[in-house]
Amino acid sequence: MTSIKLISLFLFFPLIIPNNIEAQNYLHISDSIPASSAGDLTLKLENSNFIKNNEYFNKIVEGYTLIGFWITPTLRYQISEKSAIEAGTHVLKFSGRDKFFKAKPVFRVTHEICDPLQLILGTIKNNSNHSMPAPMFDPERFYFNQADNGIQFVFTKPYCTSDLWLTWDNFVFYGDTVQEQITSGLSSKFILPLSNNINLDIPVYVIITHRGGQVNRPKLPIETLINLGSGFELEMMFDDNPAKKITLSPRCFYYSKNTSDSSRIYNNGWAFEPTLGFRLQQFSIEASYWYSNKFIGPRGEAIYQPVSTVTQGYSEEKRELLIGKFNYSYQFPKHILLSAGFEGYYDQIEKIFDYNFSLHINCVLDWKLGSFAIRE
User: What secondary structure letter does DSSP report for 85?
Assistant: First the structure.
């Protein structure tokens, strides 16, 4: 599939599939913007300070620790009631290194096409990891990929909300020796209320990664990998309070490849993950069972994958994990969120227990600097 075909497929998606976003555990910063009038100039500051320690000793992924912060200051100018521009910078810093790990410009144009549908071009919004499940989209992208650039459609309605995006991960020009890389994704959920305190949600997830290009030299194998995911989520609230609920969410995943590169050992695969969750105010607990057969998530969390990042050439056709996740979050005056999490993974094939724990302080601050009308 050429890049043009992939982009055409991406642009056609919004016309046929409504979608949804939901914050992924504690890895979330609100994307909301205060109501603005034409001419308003706003300074916005987004920041996450984090510690995440992965104590992994299995054959697929080794343990490591991430300690640091990222910060994204931007200026937002409201051009009209429906359009705005933002410009700023994003920096990522890990403790123990003198230099910034990443420093990138941020620039986006946002336009409200109609009441529920918003178009973002430039630096897309990625503060909730697009609400993708971890096997398809690594939660640690919350640290590394806050300044992805491309195109994004966000759709918001009470019965369904959506996040549909395409990012150009690696650009190539004539004579470049590397390939272009593109990621396109879709996170969706239909929300069906069954009663005052019971909802049935139907999620749809898609990730398409593409590696290719026509102008690079020498010519290298073109590769397109596809992940699909769906299932249902039955949510029962207590006292009609969404902060007190039990959820049951079995989900299925599918993997397929279209490539001439023989280094990908599996052509297709599948996985199944039933999850039982319980939330009580600031506390949430999840228990999951992960079973996969040749399932590869090219953008997914490494511990779910069959191909080792430790030993070249090693893979496990089947993965079977018992997973437990615990999270506590506390909202300070509305701009600051403190969260602490623990995740445990018991590998039923290797008989190994791995775990990680984390601490985050996330904040969003904004100041209105004034109103500056554009001259006619």
Answer: E
